[in-house]
Write a structure and sequence with these properties.
Radius of gyration: 16 Å
Helix content: 25-40%
Strand order of the largest sheet: 1-2-4-7-8-3
Structural class: alpha+beta
Number of strands: 8
Distance between the termini: 30 Å
Bound molecules: zinc ion
Strand content: 25-35%
Number of helices: 5
Shape: globular
Order of helices and strands: HEEEHEEEEEHHH
């Protein structure tokens, strides 16, 4: 199926909606997630949530294979695998448990906020239970860049945006850009 998905930008109400849980693991779901992966690759992003293509659903797709695999470490269902084997990841109904260890800062961007970046502090590691497009359950434990992307994308599924997690001083600096973008999209 050709991807006709358009990326939704900041200012659109759907970005603030909590995603609905997926209960039918059917062909239509696979068509939709394929289209999301296609849209992700087309936009050269590393993560995309359903809200960013206008649907408030518990689905996000991730592909960090353009980033050196030394920047992330992970186990999937208890196994260590090469990064390119697990990408793209399609996370359905993800439930995240934040790591209690070190927190790190990272200059984040978002496909719904073109040309805007903000420093955000998050735990360096995270655990996520999710389902694949067949409904099978998986357990991903990760740190580094992949943990960062998982947190950013799963936040989207709850209507939370990276600017909500940025310090006030950072938001102040980008406030004019944010307001201009919001005005364009409302
Ligand atoms: Zn984003």
């Amino acid at each position: 199926m050709a991807s006709n998905l358009t990326i939704v930008e900041y200012g659109k109400p759907v970005l603030r909606q909590k995603g609905e849980k997926i209960t039918s693991f059917d062909a239509a779901l696979r068509e939709f997630t394929d289209a999301m992966v296609e849209a992700l690759h087309k936009s050269t992003g590393i993560g995309l949530a359903a809200q960013q293509v206008g649907k408030a659903l518990q689905i996000c797709v991730i592909d960090t294979s353009v980033i050196d695999e030394k920047e992330s470490s992970f186990t999937l269902d208890g196994k260590q695998l090469p990064q390119k084997l697990i990408m793209p990841l399609v996370l359905i109904n993800p439930v995240v448990k934040l790591g209690k260890g070190e927190k790190v800062w990272f200059d984040e961007g978002c496909l719904s906020f073109p040309e805007i970046r903000a420093d955000v502090e998050r735990p360096d590691s995270v655990e996520v239970h999710y389902q694949d497009t067949e409904g099978a359950e998986h357990h991903l434990v990760c740190s580094g860049v992949l943990a960062r992307v998982v947190q950013h994308e799963t936040d989207h599924l709850n209507g939370i945006l990276f600017i909500d997690r940025a310090p006030k001083r950072t938001v102040k600096k980008i406030w004019a850009q944010l307001e201009a973008l919001r005005a364009r999209n409302s």
